[in-house]
TrEMBL record:
This protein's UniProt keywords: 4Fe-4S, Iron, Iron-sulfur, Metal-binding, S-adenosyl-L-methionine
InterPro entries per record: BchE-like (IPR051198), MoaA_NifB_PqqE_Fe-S-bd_CS (IPR000385), rSAM (IPR007197), rSAM_horseshoe (IPR023404), rSAM_sf (IPR058240)
GO cellular component: cytosol
Cofactor: [4Fe-4S] cluster
Boundaries of every Radical SAM core domain copy: 27-74
Protein's UniProt keywords contain Iron: yes
UniProt name for this protein: Radical SAM core domain-containing protein
High-level lineage: unclassified sequences, metagenomes, ecological metagenomes
The keyword Ribosomal protein belongs to this UniProt entry's keyword annotation: no
GO molecular-function term, one example from the UniProt record: metal ion binding
Length: 90
């Protein structure tokens, strides 16, 4: 619908709305830790960074919809931040 390949595990629900004030982004899926109380390892078999270009495209699309605030929805946002978060912020 927006020229992006669909993410079958977690579609971008914000695509259904014309105007938003807050948006949600994920830079990675999964978590590298295997905590006994956590369900994330059952949903995502391993930690995997999402492509930087895809995250930047999603950010641009959110900005076009008037989003002024972004919430990151990663389970391990700061894990290997030099490979995921820092390049995104630059």
């Amino acid at each position: 619908y927006l020229g992006l390949r669909p993410d079958l595990k977690q579609p971008a629900l914000w695509q259904a709305y014309d105007k938003l004030s807050v948006g949600v982004l994920k830079l990675s899926d999964g978590c590298p830790f295997n905590c006994t109380y956590c369900s994330v390892p059952k949903v995502y078999s391993k930690f995997k960074a999402r492509p930087l270009e895809r995250s930047l495209t999603e950010l641009e699309l959110l900005a076009k919809r008037g989003v002024g605030n972004i919430a990151f929805y990663d389970d391990a946002l700061l894990f290997e931040a030099e490979k995921t978060l820092i390049p995104f912020l630059e």
